[in-house]
Write a structure and sequence with these properties.
Elements: E1 10-17, E2 23-30, H1 33-42, E3 46-52, H2 65-80, H3 85-94, H4 99-113, H5 118-123, H6 131-143, H7 146-200, H8 209-245, H9 247-258, H10 263-284, H11 289-299, H12 303-317, H13 322-329, H14 334-346, H15 349-404
Antiparallel strand pairs: 1-2, 1-3
Helix pairs in contact: 2-3, 2-7, 3-4, 6-7, 7-8, 7-10, 7-15, 8-15, 10-11, 10-15, 11-12, 12-13, 13-14, 14-15
């Protein structure tokens, strides 16, 4: 039996003239220059220049969820405008600034041109297109409404990315200030405090207790700082390693995060919003509820809600109403359960889930804005006390001398 040999394709830049005599340019993947020229001729383009795309100074880039969201919207818009699928891939792929995303799109295009369905072509790239994405595209292809389903996917991706950015915004500012405070404090302890220590040695008097404590801390950091940093780095590295491999650890962390005083309610509302948004999108696409709940579980972004959603799926499969299953978990507010109950009774579960998602997404927006307003003065005060305390500790002996004189 003959084995198929994978041909490595490289990116080429080209310039040419189309069938209307208009100058065109773009980028394509091909095994060789002649293969690219042949592909362009098939599309009615006479190539004038074809050259390999230089990768010496080019950033390889990575494909981010935001790239997938933008790709979904572009593809939905082009299909709605009546542009054929392969041509839409060609337009989006050759015009993309991210080389990694360009390569991904053109690889999917090549599969579709070869006769593979869009859903199967996307399923070959599970790192970027999850089961939810593939299931919705499958439903769209089977129903003959691919552009409608892609529009729903694009809206879903945009909403979920927006709420992720909000959560990251809430976490980034205090984390950044904490890092800056640690760096500033370390610099003061290693480089500034020793200068004052040398100065105080000639005073011939006892130093205040606060000053002595800061000097001892500086001596410890200078003597054991590297070992301490290695221990902290080892603990963090070990935790991250275990976090990826231990479901119990992730469950414990997510439970603790949900119970935090200020951040916990935001994470809880975010998980509920993503649960409701995914449920609405899947149900509107005609995906069976039991099958859809599996994708909903993976989209919640919190393992506590993920496990609860899988339990809901198992109960729904036995014939229990969704409203009752959600109530049994003890994780969903009464308002959410009642709205889901109304949706089940009226046959508009997708609309009611979308309303729940809209409400909680707006609630997360407001909560993050309030948290940012609250944290800013609080963090600046902590930073001021930390740095100011070190400065005061160094000037206390000088103030004491001035009082004696």
């Amino acid at each position: 039996m003959a084995q198929s040999i994978a041909i490595k394709e490289t990116p080429f830049q080209w310039e040419g003239v189309d069938s209307n005599g208009k100058k065109v340019r773009g980028k394509s993947l091909g095994a060789s220059e002649s293969a690219v020229r042949a592909e362009l001729r098939r599309k009615g383009v006479v190539a004038k220049k074809v050259r390999k795309q230089s990768t010496l100074f080019q950033k390889k880039g990575t494909v981010t969820p935001a790239d997938i969201a933008i790709f979904s919207r572009q593809l939905a818009t082009m299909l709605a405008a009546g542009i054929p699928l392969v041509q839409a891939f060609d337009i989006v792929g050759t015009g993309h600034d991210n080389p990694a995303m360009q390569k991904l799109i053109l690889a999917i295009k090549a599969d579709v041109e070869g006769g593979t369905s869009l859903a199967d072509a996307l399923a070959r790239h599970p790192l970027y297109f999850d089961d939810l994405f593939v299931n919705l595209v499958t439903a769209g292809e089977q129903a003959g409404a691919l552009e409608t389903l892609l529009d729903k996917i694009a809206t879903y991706k945009e909403k979920t990315e927006a709420i992720k950015k909000k959560i990251k915004k809430a976490l980034f500012y205090p984390a950044a200030v904490l890092v800056v405070a640690t760096i500033v404090t370390t610099i003061l302890l290693i480089f500034v405090i020793p200068e004052f220590e040398n100065l105080f040695q000639g005073f011939g008097a006892d130093l205040p207790g606060f000053t002595r404590m800061v000097i001892n801390l500086s001596q410890f950091v200078r003597a054991e700082g590297i070992v301490l940093a290695m221990i902290i780095a080892g603990i963090i590295g070990s935790y991250l390693y275990m976090y990826k491999r231990s479901k119990k650890l992730r469950m414990m962390q997510d439970r603790v995060m949900l119970k935090l005083p200020i951040l916990g309610p935001i994470l809880e509302k975010s998980a509920i919003a993503r649960f409701a948004r995914t449920l609405s999108t899947m149900f509107a696409a005609g995906v069976p509820l039991v099958e859809g709940l599996e994708s909903v579980a993976g989209a919640t972004g919190n393992i506590v809600y993920e496990v609860a959603t899988l339990e809901i799926r198992d109960e729904v499969a036995t014939g229990t109403r969704l409203q009752q299953c959600m109530e049994n978990t003890g994780l969903f507010p009464n308002m959410v359960i009642q709205m889901i109950a109304v949706g089940e009774e009226s046959g508009s579960l997708d609309d009611m889930s979308a309303k729940v998602a809209d409400f909680f997404e707006e609630d997360v927006d407001n909560a993050v804005d309030s948290l940012s307003s609250l944290l800013e003065p609080m963090i600046m005060s902590i930073l001021g006390v930390l740095v100011g305390g070190l400065v005061v500790a160094m000037y206390l002996p000088i103030f004491k001398m001035g009082a004696v004189i």
